Amino acid sequence: MSAEAAPSRSRKPVEYEVTVDRVRMDTHDTATLFLDFGETPPDYKAGQFINIDPHQFPALGRLSAFLQEQKGRKEPQRSYSMASAPHERHVAITVKDEEFIPGLTRYPPLLSPLLVHGRLTGARIKVLGFMGPYVLPEDVEQRTGHVVHLVAGSGAVPNFGILKDALHRNLKPRHTVLMSNKTWGDVLYREELESLERQYPDRVRLVHTLTRELDESRFSASVRKGRIHQALLEELIPDRDTCLVYACGPAITPWDRRKALETRTPATPRFMETVLGHLHALGIEDKRIRRETYG
Ligand SMILES: Cc1cc2nc3c(=O)[nH]c(=O)nc-3n(C[C@H](O)[C@H](O)[C@H](O)COP(=O)(O)OP(=O)(O)OC[C@H]3O[C@@H](n4cnc5c(N)ncnc54)[C@H](O)[C@@H]3O)c2cc1C
Question: Domains of the chain, with CATH numbers?
Fold first, then answer.
């Protein structure tokens, strides 16, 4: 996942210098950084993101210079969705340490390894915020009675913030959260989500799909084997004319597209392309689908 998203036009993003209050390892490759913005609570909406400029970290100076030379362009800021909701004390971002697979991945990742493994607790860092239209509409209660969250891997981040915010504000729509992961150990916010489901049994339904889980005892009605498929969406979304879908996860990257053009082979659809295809096949209109792509 690699991209710098364009700031939304609604409010000009502001640069903040914040303290990393603590770093929590969530899975083997993913960590949540809790950011302290000081006395004044920052003004943002659940589901939005911040940008972090890798050039501020001296530890990345040489790698950044090398990558810039290789790629022939300045390394852009990286975007990170907020895992937190505005009522929470800290702004939280959850970052996945991008893989580098020799022979498959073109360059090593720049910023995510430092954010995840760099022991940044106590560090002062600069962030630019807050941006992005991946938020609930003001009149969500008039628009729908059912918010469907379709997320893969770290795509769970903004939806977790949106869900917590909606429940905190006691908004009426119920929520179905469908999460796609490789294994049970990869599921983000598992305990917090289960606790929300217990706390709001009429408002929150959690369903997992696991593509590479070897422990068969994990599977049940709420933990399905394989990928998200059309029949599952049909089962979970009976109200296809009135639901509001928030889909977030990896999509075909610009580099995949370039490679596809060069090799004249179509780029392999990723989570977002696949899921959007299913939603359209089920007749869910585009205006009912909000999307955040990390590709
Ligand atoms: C709106 C938004 C929200 C996001 N939220 C999150 C989030 O909550 N959590 C999260 O973990 N991530 C999130 N991301 C992704 C994040 O912004 C970074 O892209 C991610 O952390 C990887 O950054 P990196 O510097 O570690 O890796 P990068 O240096 O960006 O590299 C990532 C991959 O891209 C490839 N690549 C980079 N440049 C090129 C090139 N020129 N040609 C070919 N291949 C190239 C590399 O080989 C590598 O495989 C979000 C992205 C967006 C747009």
Answer: 14-131 (2.40.30.10), 140-293 (3.40.50.80)
